[in-house]
Amino acid sequence: MPEDIAGSEQMLANWNKNIQERAARYQEMATRVQGMTISERSQDGSVEILVGSNGILQNLVINESAAGKRMAEISGEIMKLLQRAQSRIPQLLQEAMAETIGTQDETANVLFNEAKKNFPAPPAEEPARTPYDRNEINFRVEDDAPPPARPAPPPPPPRRRRPSDDDDDDFGGQSVLS
């Protein structure tokens, strides 16, 4: 019976050691992932973002070169960059897992699949289209400025009064009522 107790104690010690080693690897992975950031920049360099490994925007820079752009265009660029950066999180998570806990770990796979679900790949970018690409012609003004004001019509010409010496009303300059 003493052999059974010694074997049980050894098995318990090994189990405890494995749990502690696994916990240390998970802690190392968590530390790595927590320190990761992803940056993205627009093609023209007018917008730059920095996203943390949790997908939250940490920094946004709108450069002076964006001054001539419409606000809708800038906000659309920000959202596109944010989604592109967030879609890279599962890959970074998988790399950190491979280096620390391994990719065969069941918990690691759950974390990875959850990250893929929360941060999917961005939709494919469509090339910029013009009305000519769609065989359409658009006559609308497409800027945010109000329509130009119409010029005021010219004032009517002043009324001409007849000179008083040209009196042809046959009343002799007198009132009709007198």
Overview of this structure, please?
By secondary structure, the chain is mainly alpha-helical. The protein has a domain at 2-118: Ybab, Chain: A (2-Layer Sandwich), CATH 3.30.1310. The protein is 42% helix and 10% strand. The chain is built from 4 helices and 3 strands. The chain has helices at 2-35, 71-86, 89-100, 106-118; strands spanning 37-41, 47-52, 57-62. The chain has a 3-stranded antiparallel β-sheet with strand order 1-2-3, with helices on one face. β1 and β2 (47-52) form a beta hairpin. α1 (2-35) packs antiparallel against α3. The protein is rod-shaped. The N and C termini lie far apart (149 Å). The relative contact order is 0.08. The mean pLDDT is 82. This is YbaB/EbfC DNA-binding family protein. InterPro entries: YbaB-like_sf, YbaB/EbfC. Residues 146-157 have a biased composition (Pro residues).
Give the tally of β-strands.
Answer: 3
Please list the strands of the largest sheet in the order they lie side by side. 1-2-3
CATH topology of the domain at 2-118: Ybab, Chain: A
Which class do the helix and strand fractions yield?
mainly alpha
Specify the CATH class of the domain at 2-118: Alpha Beta
The proportion of residues in beta strands is: 5-15%
Architecture per CATH nomenclature, i.e. the level-2 architecture of the domain at 2-118: 2-Layer Sandwich
Shape assignment: rod-shaped
Count of helical regions: 4
List the uncertain runs: none
Order of helices and strands: HEEEHHH
Query: What's the CATH H-level superfamily name of the domain at 2-118?
Result: Nucleoid-associated protein YbaB-like domain
